[in-house]
Amino acid sequence: MRAQHGGSGSGTVNRSRWTVRYANTGALFVPGLGVVQGMNWLHDGDLVVAVDQNRTLTRVNAKGGTSTLATDVGAYGVIVGPDSYIYTANYQSIHRIDPKTGDKEVLISKNRVSPRVLNFSPDFSKLYVGTYMGNGGKIYEVTLDKNLDPVGGLTVFATGVGTGSYHDALEVDAGGNIYVVDYSTSTLWRITPAGKVSNLHNFGSRNYGHGITWGNGVDGWRDDAIYLPQPYNGNNVVDVVIQVPSREDRTSVV
Length: 254
Known about the structure:
The protein has strands spanning 2-5, 9-13, 16-20, 26-30, 36-41, 47-51, 56-60, 66-70, 77-80, 86-89, 93-97, 104-109, 115-120, 126-131, 139-144, 150-158, 167-172, 178-182, 187-191, 197-202, 213-214, 225-230, 236-241. It is mainly beta.
């Protein structure tokens, strides 16, 4: 593992979006976007970004232009499915949102679980969910049918993944291993497909990764490494070489 200044693709500084190259050169991309949380690439190459202040999902194109994609979402976790729909977690429920119309439907209601981050298994038969407050470090899963509709409710997949007060990011590699950042323990956890939990790295007090993204194999960013921004540690980015690529093909995203 090694620390780098800058970050994979783009980042947020002073409530603006910046693009940063691996060589640590950056440029302003979207000024004044606001405090943002989860983001992901849409299939058309635009970004979808969860903006805190107005609870919207905002679309950002390659030139930095923005438009409102959906309102009254309040999302933290954001992931795009193979069906091109956007899946979000907002502490109360998990939504599926049409990127063309902004229409949203509730897939999973809270039901004693406060969903914060989410991601799919490599074959999209499972949706994994990290939590916020009061769930004791549990990671949940729900089985999905071929239409990505839930079959049954959330069940506990793994325990002891930090304290669960803030699961800040959740990624999945091509082998089905899950990577979760937990704020309260400042730790990056790895969970095998069988649910075995291990401490992959402890960052020290508050120096945790506020998000995870895989590199795309372009311009120095390794496609077998995950990159973790550290807003409370000088806005550095730490990379962790996993030697396994993401569950999704990142090579088309530059």
